[in-house]
Amino acid sequence: MKQWISYAAALLLLAGNLQAQVGEEALSLQEAIRVGLEKNYDIRIAKNNQRMADNNHSVGNAGFLPSVTAQFDQSNASNNTRQEFLSGQILERDGASSETTSALVGLNWTIFDGLKMFTTYEKLGELKKMGEADAKIRIEANVALIIQAYARVVQARQQIVVADKNVAISQERFELSEERFRLGSSSKLEMLQAKVDLNSDISAQLEQKQLLKEAQIALNELLGRDAEAAFITTDSLQTGSELELSKLRNDALKQNPSLLVAETNRRVAQLELKEVQAAMLPRVDVLGDYHWNQSSSEAGFLASNQNTGINYGIRASLNLFNGFYVHRERQNAKIRIETAELQLEQERTALTAAISRLFASYKNSLQLVGLETENLAVAAQNLEVAEESFKVGSLTALELRDAQRQYVAAETRLIQAKYVVMVTRTELLRLSGVLLN
Fold first, then answer.
1. pLDDT band at residue 275, thresholds of 50, 70 and 90?
2. Cβ neighbours of residue 72 under 8 Å, at least 6 residues apart?
3. Angle between helices 397-431 and 245-255 (to 10 degrees)
4. Can you give the CATH number for the domain in which 129 is found?
5. Tell me, what's the pLDDT at 94?
6. Which one of 81, 88, 226, 278 is least enclosed by Cβ atoms within 10 Å?
């Protein structure tokens, strides 16, 4: 029995430890994650969005720095002119040209705006944190998808190993039935039934190979590479160390990126209220410019005129009435704060509920792994006895087929249970915000 248990365990790990065939790279789970972090399109887009949020967090974007503008104007005109002076002199000129040229460098610097610029800078910092959290959400989500896709490839490979063994057993049974029929010790019906069962198992084997191909394409897509890239997985379905519900919940409330986004939204709403309130205070701007103007004309009192100089001053303004706009904005900002707080509580509730549901599935799958491991050992021993009995003629073909089905079913259930453990464990780590750790 120990021999069969060892054989069954080795069979489940076989798909993960197969040597790479010609043209196939050996791909571990860690390597798949590394490639995904580097090449996955969603992850690269998320990183770009985070970079933009980082760029926006600046004193200039918050309004601390002055604005400096340069302006240049040049205009020409051609006019018919008739001028009559008090002395009686009349001056007429057709096609008199004139030219005006001006240049200006101006500065406008808001030195006080009700402290709005400080609030805006703080809000940009919160938006930067939100960008980081959004990036983490997309990165963790795609890493989880990569792990699940890798697990599907491993699962499909292991199912092919099971299908191969099943076909080998059916092939041996068919050959034995065919030999017995030729010797006249069994009926043609038994031989034909063995052939039908063999064809059925080959069909199932082909379906598993198609599932493996589809799983490989899905993983390649997540890794941002050619869908036909050939590889062979080197890791098996791992259950990992057992998780604790209390720790998962505590980590989630501290580190879950979706929860952090909801908390940041609340903070941003509070800062937006402060920005609106700043509009009720005076605004002070410092103004200045250096200008140069030159004009010339073929008609009129002056043939040319030029002036340069500096203008400077200070401007203070206070909004006295604007149709209750500020009042409405204050009310709306308070409503946004209330909404953000509700969304935060909703996110907390949904998060804890999701963790509880997944943890129940995770624990159940762990129990199934233990149960199905024991079932597989029994089914493997039962199949061994059935094969030997069939060879000596003390067991019917139907009884052998039944033992064969039980073995395949037990192995399939064990593979599925391990897959579910790996998937639910990954999702629990993602929800708790520690998957990337």
1. very high
2. 102, 103, 104
3. 40
4. 1.20.1600.10
5. 74
6. 88
The three-point CA angle 132-134-135 to 5° equals 65
Give the amino acid at 104.
Answer: L
Q: Locate tokens 């057992």: which residue?
A: 242
* Residues spanned by the domain of 166: 2-431
Q: Are 133 and 259 in contact (CB under 8 A)?
A: no
Please list, residue by residue across 179-214, b when 16 or more beta carbons sit within 10 angstroms of its beta carbon and e when fewer do.
Answer: ebbeeeebeeebbebbeebbeebeebbeebeebbee
In whole angstroms, what is the distance from residue 429 CA to residue 434 CA? 6
User: Does 195 have pLDDT greater than 60?
Assistant: yes
Residue 56 lies in a domain: yes
Output the pLDDT for position 182.
Answer: 87
- 47 located within any domain: yes
Question: What are the distances in angstroms from CA 437 to CA 129, 229, 255, 433?
Answer: 19, 28, 11, 9
- For a pLDDT cut of 70, what percent of the chain falls above it? 93
The alpha helices in 57-115, defined as continuous H runs, are: 59-62
375-387: per-residue pLDDT in tens? 999 999 999 999 9
The model's pTM: 0.81
Q: Is residue 343 part of a domain?
A: yes
Torsion of CA 232, 377, 238, 217, to 10 degrees: 30
Helix axes 29-39, 116-183, angle to 10 degrees: 140
The answer to whether residues 139 and 46 touch, using CB atoms and an 8 Å cutoff, is: yes
